[in-house]
UniProtKB/TrEMBL annotation:
Residues 1-81, 82-155 form the K Homology domain. CDD domains: KH-I_Dim2p_like_rpt1 (cd22389), KH-I_Dim2p_like_rpt2 (cd22390). SUPFAM superfamilies: Eukaryotic type KH-domain (KH-domain type I) (SSF54791). SMART domains: KH. GO terms for molecular function: RNA binding. Gene3D superfamilies: K Homology domain, type 1 (3.30.1370.10). InterPro entries: KH_dom (IPR004087), KH_dom_type_1 (IPR004088), KH_dom_type_1_sf (IPR036612), KH_domain_protein_archaea (IPR019964), KH_PNO1_2nd (IPR055211). Keywords: RNA-binding. This is RNA-processing protein. It holds the Pfam family KH_PNO1_2nd.
Length: 186
């Protein structure tokens, strides 16, 4: 049994209308979820395939970090799919700086976040003080590096060039490059 804590305002998303999302996660990941809606604690108990069960806490965490349930469930599609989080708060000096750093990652009209998704092939969500990434290891690595460059103060143009380069490398290596259905909505 594993325990995951998610923000209060994401519990409804995890449960879904009439418990629909929760049941889908339980069925897909072969687990049982025990959700405490008072404090956001989620107990994850594997009831089927242990390998699929290992991904369940990550799915719950991803939903807690702002991903839509459909995007979080992509973690089950492939053993290579990863969920990673960049802590924006750690790079910020204070609340105003946190807002500024988030703004740099989101970009004007959400363009920077969109480009991170488009050029890496990963799903990217900025929620609270974190940037969440779902994708294959090279995709996650590209987004994490781009985010860290921005948080370190690199100009957006430099970061876009880096992402273009990574995009071309991934395509050149014949990596499976695909846009996730349903991502890119902002």
């Amino acid at each position: 049994m594993q325990h995951v804590k998610i923000p209060q305002d994401r519990i409804g998303v995890l449960i879904g209308e009439g418990g629909e999302t929760m049941r889908e996660i339980e069925a897909e990941a072969e687990v049982r979820l025990d959700i405490d809606s008072e404090d956001g604690a989620v107990a994850v108990e594997t009831v089927g395939d242990p390998v699929r069960g290992l991904k369940a806490p990550e799915i719950v965490r991803a939903i807690g970090r702002g991903f839509a349930p459909e995007e979080a469930l992509q973690l089950l599609e492939d053993d290579m799919m990863l969920f990673d989080v960049v802590d924006i708060d750690a790079a910020a000096r204070n609340k105003n700086d946190l807002k500024r750093q988030k703004g740099r990652l989101i970009g004007e009209g959400g363009r920077t976040r969109e480009l991170m998704e488009e050029l890496s092939g990963a799903s990217v969500v900025i929620y609270g003080s974190t940037l969440g990434i779902i994708g294959t290891p090279p995709q996650v690595d590209a987004v994490r590096s781009a985010a860290e460059m921005l948080l370190d103060g690199a100009p957006h143009g430099t970061v876009y060039s880096f992402l273009e380069e990574r995009h071309n490398e991934m395509k050149h290596q014949g990596m499976q490059y695909h846009r996730f259905p349903g991502s890119g909505s902002s």
